[in-house]
Amino acid sequence: MIRLLQRHPSLPYVAPFAAFMVLLAVAPRLALEPRVEGILRVSLLLAVLWVFSRHVIEWRAPHWLSSILLGVGVFVLWIAPDVVFPTWRGHWLFDNGLTGRAEGTMPMEGRSDPLVLALRAARAVVLVPIIEELFWRGWLPRWLANMDDFRKVPLGSYTGVIFWITAALFALEHGSMWDVGLMAGLAYNWWMRRTRSLGDLMLTHAVTNACLSAYVLIEGRWEYW
Fold first, then answer.
1. CA dihedral angle for residue 24, residue 26, residue 30, residue 33, rounded to 10 degrees
2. Nearest to 45 by CA among 137, 130, 139, 133
3. How would residue 106 be classed by pLDDT, with cut points 50, 70 and 90?
4. Residues 177 and 102 sit within 8 Å (Cβ to Cβ)
5. pTM for this one?
6. Fewest CB within 10 A of the end CB: N or C in the chain?
7. pLDDT tens digits for 111-138?
8. DSSP secondary structure string, 4-62?
């Protein structure tokens, strides 16, 4: 494994995200019982992170208070369009054949199951911020800047073009929520440029997702999950 990672230094940053995207595409087709699906997803993602990425995950967040506040701010931005304009998601820009529509993936039988909800929240708050920040802020902008050896590019280094490309691609990952995904991507990119700390970005992203998870559970807005 050490030799593999030495030959392919991108693996710790890309492998968890690839596994995450494959599971997003495949899991609904398997029609598994919600508890089984939740356990499998969390277990597989944890395993990939442990095998490939444990040595590149940054646990320190030097700007932890500002990171927490920004995470809350991004949460507010995320729900604001739907709160202010309740029919916002019904516009053709967000409900079409290309972006899909804002529909939650949580099955009805799982919405009242404490274990399923706990696993889904754990995935959103703990695993997704690590997986996505490794890829979107830890690897992609650096790889775009130097495809021969991204490790030579310091964290938080962006050209204007790369700054917008990564934010736009981050937006596309979020389907019909691409508008708020774009705002979040810009905010996260800006914070990475300011802090140059992957740990701070993981914390910010975790706070955003924690707030969203609480909002889903309190308000029943399953489309955010």
1. -20
2. 130
3. confident
4. yes
5. 0.95
6. N
7. 999 999 999 999 999 999 999 999 999 9
8. HHHH-TTHHHHHHHHHHHHHHHHHHHHT--HHHHHHHHHHHHHHHIIIIITTT-----T
